[in-house]
Design goal:
The complex is a heterodimer of chains A (139) and B (409). Chain A has a domain at 24-52 and 65-130: SH3 type barrels (Roll), CATH 2.30.30. In chain A, 15% of the residues lie in helices and 22% in strands. Chain A contains three helices and seven strands. Chain A has helices at residues 24-28, 75-81, 118-126; strands at 32-34, 40-43, 46-50, 66-72, 91-94, 98-101, 105-107. In chain A, strands 2-1-7-6 form a four-stranded mixed β-sheet, with no helix packed on it. In chain A, a hairpin with a 5-residue loop joins strand 1 (32-34) and strand 2 (40-43). Chain A is flat. With 409 residues, chain B is mainly alpha-helical. Chain B has one domain (2-405): Hydantoin permease. Chain B contains 16 helices and no strands. The radius of gyration of chain B is 20 Å and the shape is globular. Classes of the chains: A alpha+beta (139), B mainly alpha (409).
Chain lengths: 139, 409
């Protein structure tokens, strides 16, 4: 091959820019959320954006809206069948707790502390712990 | 040496675990009515399940995502929920059929009516899921299921006219006593029995349970490519036995006792004992797999914590949902519904739901974000697309054919 002498054999990848482009639909919605211990918490059922009002067009030059929280719970129903649940019914997982976005979304906190996992905790404490052997670790 | 043993064990488990109540009943029914003339469908089904089980195992090993997580991510919540509804319903039907199958096998052994065995069977299934380690559970059921080899032995002992059997198998034609619609209806049922969606849910979730990584891909592929075809041979042997003994005698298969009749005729009590142990292990193993699969599909769609590698308290909703499923199956069986009939319907509905399961797997197996360099090769994609067409055709024809033929009556 006629490569000029000082060209490196392989080009270095471009340096990372300050952020990463994430497609909300493709990379966030319906992805599995996993806590810091590797325990699945929920699936991202919807997103909450800040800095944008529903049904009002965004003015040119306005600050970009940011994701404030991942939502789960009853919001899945309204996402499928339409409508919007009252704000008080939303189960929020603040974006601050997210530590990495990959094939799954990883959190930097334990699921025990999250509002997200109250159903899991309730079923665990009221039913599963009361059945003999429920705490038995298979390994 | 240890690795070799692991491979051998994997293959044996796959063989023994391939057959479930759906395969048992459908193959015996088909053998007793059509001889060997529908056996080609088993071959088509086995190649299909090899192709897609390998793919779903690869997705799970490389990306750590099990099939239903992938289905939700790719199809979105609406189509995903529709898919969950259909898959879960069919899976629940299969759970019911398998538990009924365990009870029928126990009835054959003990002469105690199967309705009395049903609660015990369901409880035993729950107990194993609650307590026993995944690996032990899978291996014990799979290895005991190998007793079904006795159907192959029986076929030899019956000393059939091999030329005639091979002729039926190699030049398939609709028997004069049956019409074409019924022939194709059973072709679809047999296809659905071989490619039941729960096998893929279980296979991919099992890969996550056992913590497969990219380096385990070779072993997984060997398990699938050796185990499933050999398991398919068991299906063929069951149909063969029925074709040799039941077809000439004009016996219609309506219960388990007719399925094992050829084995008893060929090999007496000892062979019958093996057949019964094999059927018990196969139905029990499949009951475990389908019950787990209903938990897997729900948990993966909603993002709950799941898996037998966690203690039940760390996967509470997963375990509760399986308990509820078993109770529903119990309730259905308690009405006195015939497990054999439930089985026959479940394999046809499985055929209807096939594209829902297999299309998303094919899409993700080609996605480099999940798969890195392990995306499908071109050859696999060509084969998988051809199968997708077959699956789609079977799915679209299943319900119309069921109505036209009165479910094969």
């Amino acid at each position: 091959m006629n490569r000029p002498q000082h060209t490196p054999a392989r080009l270095e990848p471009a340096p990372p820019t300050s952020g990463r482009v994430l497609d909300a639909q493709l990379h966030l919605l319906d992805r599995q959320v996993i806590d810091v211990d590797g325990l699945p918490v929920t699936t991202v059922d919807d997103l909450e954006l800040e800095g944008v009002e529903a049904d009002i067009p965004i003015a040119a030059g306005a600050a970009a809206p940011v994701i404030s929280a991942l939502l789960s719970g009853p919001v899945l129903g309204t996402r499928i069948f339409g409508g919007r649940p009252p704000s008080s019914r939303l189960i929020r997982l603040t974006w601050k707790d997210v530590s990495a976005v990959d094939v799954t979304i990883r959190l930097g906190v334990r699921s025990e502390s999250l509002a997200e996992s109250w159903v899991e905790r309730w079923i665990r404490d009221k039913i599963i712990t009361r059945i003999p052997g429920g705490k038995h670790d298979p390994h | 040496m240890k690795r070799l043993l692991g491979v051998a064990l994997g293959i044996l488990t796959a063989i023994g675990g391939f057959v479930d109540i759906g395969d048992l009943v459908t193959n015996a029914v088909v053998g007793s009515r059509f001889g060997m003339s529908l056996i080609w469908v088993v071959g088509v089904g086995v190649i299909g399940i090899c192709l897609y089980a390998d793919m779903s195992g690869r997705v799970a090993a490389v990306s750590g995502r099990a099939t239903f997580e992938v289905i939700r991510e790719r199809l979105g919540p609406r189509a995903g929920l529709a898919n969950l509804g259909a898959s879960f319903f069919i899976n629940l039907m299969t759970v019911t059929a398998e538990i009924g199958g365990i009870a029928l096998a126990l009835q054959l052994v003990t002469s105690v009516h199967h309705l009395l065995w049903i609660p015990l069977a369901a409880f035993a299934v729950w107990l194993v899921i609650w307590r026993v380690r995944f690996k032990i559970m899978e291996n014990v059921a799979g290895l005991l299921g190998l007793c079904l080899v006795v159907f192959g032995v029986a076929l030899f002992l019956l000393n059939p006219d091999w030329g005639q059997l091979a002729g039926q198998a190699l030049a398939p034609a609709v028997p004069q006593t049956e019409n074409a619609a019924v022939y194709w209806f059973y072709a679809i049922a047999l296809f659905g029995a071989a490619m039941t969606p729960y096998e893929v849910f279980f296979f991919s979730s099992g890969a996550v349970e056992e913590g497969w990584k990219t380096k385990d891909l070779v072993q997984s592929r060997i398990n699938v490519l050796a185990g499933f075809p050999l398991g398919g041979m068991l299906s063929v042997a069951i149909a063969g036995c029925a074709a040799v003994v039941l077809l000439p005698a004009g016996i219609e298969v309506t219960s388990l006792s007719q399925i094992v009749l050829p084995v008893a005729e060929a090999g007496g009590k000892l062979a019958l004992a093996f057949a019964l142990v094999g059927i018990l292990a196969a139905t029990f193993g499949a009951a475990l797999e389908t019950t787990l699969s209903s938990g897997y599909t729900l948990a993966q769609f909603f993002g709950w914590s799941w898996g037998k590698f966690r203690s039940p308290v760390r996967a509470a909703r997963f375990h509760l949902s399986m308990i509820v499923c078993l109770l529903v199956a119990l309730a259905v069986l308690a009405t006195g519904a015939d497990p054999i009939l439930i089985t026959e319907y479940s394999v046809v509905f499985s055929a209807v739901a096939l594209p829902l399961t297999y299309l998303p797997i094919l899409i993700v197996a080609n996605d480099p974000q999940y798969m890195g360099t392990n995306v499908n090769s071109r050859t696999i994609n060509v084969a998988a697309n051809i199968y997708l067409l077959i699956i789609l055709a079977a799915s679209l024809c299943a319900i119309p054919l069921m109505i036209i033929t009165g479910a094969g009556a």
